[in-house]
């Protein structure tokens, strides 16, 4: 039988556990998949019997579609499948055709059938479906043998009320929850390895993203900012278009350098970043801040320094990387595609005016005393007033 469309069965991960809210989560998931597939002509996305079915014109690139679907948070797995009538004869015939292709394309020699009937009124029970379809495949494809322990091809047969499905691969998605199901956070995005990963992790739990980036132009270059925009564009392929607030921190850094002890520069700058971010978050409907901070990674991320940074704001600060090891963060960055851009060597505003011996155990009273020498409110207001807002589109 000539195929006219690609069919993909998409399984929801945790969404399936959401009890009463399940339809809501599933709807959000379908909307996200539709949005990401909008660039293709001739695709439909529908919920049916607890699964999501994506159908695409046969001329479309199957791998490109799989790649897009796998970026949607909330997707546990994807299986390219073939569809047939729910009769033993039709399933047997479709299974034979499916395996013929597997032999031709991948030199499959052994197989095992894994059958399941979602429709309990179907007259044949699951183990019998498995046996009968296995026998039909053996008869139709003489070169194949059954191997129950280590088959080249695990052939899934999913018998449903309207139609039945045959598939082999379960391509893993990232899991998580559909975007838009868990509020909105403002992420402090630098050009480093960590903050894009932290942003991605929060978006994976369903959080919508808005971003803020600080620079120290002209100490930091235009190219350094473009790098951050590139990174943001990669993150946006997962979490959709978002706004990035870009703020020049130089006037604040200059005030700190001329009025406060040198070793406190970094922690003072960080407290200003947090306060500016908190204000921008309030102005844009974000209820949390997100950073890529990680316990002990650098002087400004010791336990003591994090406490002092944290006490600058009252809004909750999400630090999803806090207990991860650097190698694991780097692996994640590779996996999501931000690593290569992150390691491009451009200066960051944190490296401008870097003290020779930063305090690693700052005391809040001392820091507050230093800040009392500055017009904090005025500096923050001026910084926010001069912000530039950039729209970040998926790359
Ligand atoms: P990253 O790799 O994310 O830059 P890092 O290990 O270099 O992190 P820091 O430079 O101390 O650590 O920054 C800690 C966090 O503060 C970053 O993860 C990010 O969330 C935020 N941050 C640092 N620099 C900037 C910046 N220029 N603009 C916005 N946020 C920043
Ligand atoms: Mg950094």
Task: Give a description of the structure.
- With 395 residues, the chain is an alpha/beta fold.
- Helices cover 40% and strands 22% of the residues.
- The protein has 13 helices and 15 strands.
- The strands form two sheets. Strands 1, 2, 3, 4, 5, 6, 7, 8 and 9 form a nine-stranded mixed β-sheet that branches. A six-stranded mixed β-sheet has the order 14-13-10-11-12-15, sandwiched between helices.
- It is elongated, with a radius of gyration of 27 Å.
- The two termini are 39 Å apart.
- The site of adenosine-5'-triphosphate has 20 residues, from α5 and β11.
Helix-strand blueprint:
Blueprint: E1 5-12, H1 22-37, E2 43-48, E3 51-57, H2 62-70, E4 75-85, H3 88-106, E5 110-117, H4 126-140, E6 145-146, E7 153-159, E8 163-167, E9 171-172, E10 184-188, H5 194-204, E11 208-215, H6 222-239, E12 242-248, H7 250-259, H8 265-283, E13 288-290, H9 303-310, E14 317-318, H10 326-336, H11 339-342, H12 364-371, H13 376-385, E15 388-392
Parallel strand pairs: 5-6, 5-7, 10-11, 10-13, 11-12, 13-14
Antiparallel strand pairs: 1-3, 1-4, 2-3, 4-8, 4-9, 7-8, 12-15
Helix pairs in contact: 3-4, 5-6, 5-10, 7-8, 8-9, 8-13
Number of strands: 15
Heterogens: adenosine-5'-triphosphate, magnesium ion
Low-confidence stretches: none
Q: Whole-number average pLDDT?
A: 94
Q: Which shape, going by the Cα principal axes?
A: elongated
Number of helices: 13
Ends: how far apart?
A: 39 Å
